[in-house]
Amino acid sequence: MKDWKEAIITQNSSVRDGLRKIDKAALKIGFVCDEKQKLIGTVSDGDIRRGLLENTELHDPIVTIINRSPKTCCESASKAEMLAIISKFQIDVLPIINDDGVLKNVITFSDLQKPIKRDNPVFIMAGGFGTRLSPLTDSCPKPMLPLGDKPLLDHIIKRFIKQGFWNFYISTHYMPHVITNYFGDGSAYGVSIKYIPEETPLGTGGALSLLPRDISSLPLILINGDVLTDADFEEILSTHLKFNADATMCLREHETSVAYGVVTVEDDAVVGMLEKPIYRHNINTGIYVLSNELISSVGKNEKIDLPTILEQRMAIGKKISAHVFHGKWIDIGQITDFKRAQKEILKIEE
């Protein structure tokens, strides 16, 4: 566990400041304290997401959305008493306070819990050429590029395994033997891995047509094979089920800075000026949850991208839900991304 003190948020912080603290500490929760470190409340990723859905702004004070009555435990409590609180209230993180309410420690039970077995199939798109990463990909598929001591694809699969998933499908095209020789049938990982070879590239959605038609009635998680993330796939699935969606797209806020003053002109007249503005957009992370009905709608060997499929489904009235997450995410599309991923992998796996 990372240093829990990095998750302490001052009571005067904004929601955005709190997000940054939560992201840095990687505990998925922040502890809002006054100047004497007295615990005022807690705030989680879920609290922030619900606040944003209820029109809270990122510049609003963090105290407007905190839980002011979090479950806590005193310093003198035994391990058995702490575990009893965690079990009773089904929480992952337990703040430890002294008699004055000052935050003294944080304990977590997540590393002691076995993941719930999840039968939802996971489809990893690993057939691309990765030309933008040449020469690294001249003799190696992009998903098999090493991050730390193992390939990117290994990190992706183990992230899912840690959360209870076991039923994997991997699409292959470029140098498929490198992938199949490394992972085999998945038995070394205690999971099932089946391969979906694309004789010709079918786009980011066409490979869905090659999946077995009886794959599962459960929603399928699809992820691009070049994505490094600490996403909570259970939360993404929960969003999908909550809205009874045809598909769920996982999004992340992306900031774009303009290094110059931006001027708005109408009818040859200056009507507005913004000095070095920052624009924020929700971007596609390459992570989806898809219904069996959507998968079945893709024509056999049809070359099509997944966004096009989603547009077609929306056109006939199907619901596409959005899940915005604020964790770590890197799309390893270029050399600079690959170098950044080498540094981030240690933080993601802590």
Structure write-up:
The protein has helices at residues 15-25, 45-53, 79-89, 152-162, 176-183, 203-206, 233-242, 292-296, 306-315, 335-349, and strands at 8-10, 29-33, 39-44, 73-74, 93-97, 103-108, 122-125, 146-147, 150-151, 167-172, 192-197, 220-224, 227-229, 247-257, 261-266, 269-275, 278-290, 320-324, 329-331. The model has no long low-confidence stretch (mean pLDDT 91). The strands form 6 sheets. The protein has a 7-stranded mixed beta sheet. The protein has a 3-stranded mixed beta sheet with strand order 1-2-3. The chain starts with 7 loop residues before the first strand and ends with a helix. With 350 residues, the chain is α/β, with parallel strands linked by helices. The protein has 10 helices and 19 strands.
